[in-house]
């Protein structure tokens, strides 16, 4: 974060910010990376049976990561 974790108190609690940064944002980034690896593996092996599902998962997880980046930066 570009600011201390408690910089927004009392308007936005440290605990709430930790949830958004440590749990939600980190989770979205991790899942995005995992899904990208699965997509790369599937494409390298010409296994397109789950591409649609993986692309949807990448869209969901990637969007969550981007929206949380914007959210944390705007604060």
Overview of the molecule:
By secondary structure, this protein is mainly alpha-helical. Helix content is 73%, strand content 0%. It has two helices and no strands. It has helices at residues 14-44, 51-74. α1 packs antiparallel against α2. The longest helix is centred in the middle third of the chain and has 31 residues, at 14-44. The protein is rod-shaped and about 55 Å long. The termini are close together. The model has no long low-confidence stretch (mean pLDDT 94).
Characteristic terms for this protein:
75 residues, mainly alpha, 2 helices, 73% helix
How does the SSE layout of this entry go?
Layout: H1 14-44, H2 51-74
Order of helices and strands: HH
Average pLDDT over all residues:
94
Number of helices: 2
Radius of gyration: 16 Å
Sum up the overall morphology in one term.
rod-shaped
The gist of it:
By secondary structure, this protein is an all-alpha fold. 73% of the residues lie in helices and 0% in strands. 8% of the residues are buried.
């Amino acid at each position: 974060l570009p600011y201390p974790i408690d910089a927004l108190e009392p308007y936005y609690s440290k605990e709430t910010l930790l949830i958004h940064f440590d749990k939600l944002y980190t989770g979205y980034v991790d899942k995005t990376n995992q899904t990208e690896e699965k997509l790369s593996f599937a494409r390298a092996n010409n296994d397109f049976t789950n591409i649609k599902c993986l692309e949807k998962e990448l869209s969901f997880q990637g969007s969550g990561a981007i929206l949380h980046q914007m959210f944390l930066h705007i604060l």
